Amino acid sequence: MTGTPIVFVVDNDPAVRRMIKRLLESVGLQVELFGSAEEFRRSERPTTTSCLVLDIRLPGISGLDFQRELAETNIQIPIIFITAHGDIPMAVRAMKAGAVEFLTKPFRDQDLLDAIQQALGRDRMRRAHEAEIATLLERLESLTSGERRVLPLVVSGRPNKQIAGEIGTSEATVKVHRSQLMKKMGADSLPELVRMAEKIGIPGSLASPVQGDQAQSGEVPSNKPSFYWSLRK
Question: Which of 15, 66, 98, 181 supports an S-S bond with 37, CB 3.0-4.6 Å?
């Protein structure tokens, strides 16, 4: 996630591309220009904070259809639409699909700059969240099978004695598992461990505990995410 943020601009009008490039470079942003969605597709995008300034009318696929294509291929990049031919239905469709802004040409420089800062902020937060989840999953993988078995019961708020009875082991063993999993997950307290568990979709919470027979058999309620349980297999 390091490096200078990049703004990708896709517009079939060279004059508009040059104007946006001058504007963004004047405030210290890195810019890459493309004349069509196809050119953007073929480009190699660095793994740094970025956003996309996208015209509605383009050769080949339209900006709105390209927005849908990016979403379908799980390319998560905040989009700011610019157009000289926009209407309310277009704007509504774009915003419902997650666009940051929909600007009509000619737009004010500051409006574009504000939208870009908002888009970069959104992408920065997404990348930080994904990095946090990846770190937590790495820590989760370091747990032993016993620690993984105890974890959902710990975050459900059960005391050690009850956990021991539910999974058929000694209270001393549960204490060791609890201590080790707290250390490996990097949690200084139970509330912090609970927050970590919620972020990576581990079954069991103070409001919705895992039942004892499910804990023993490894059965997962069907409405629970599977990040944790997939690692047990």
Answer: 66
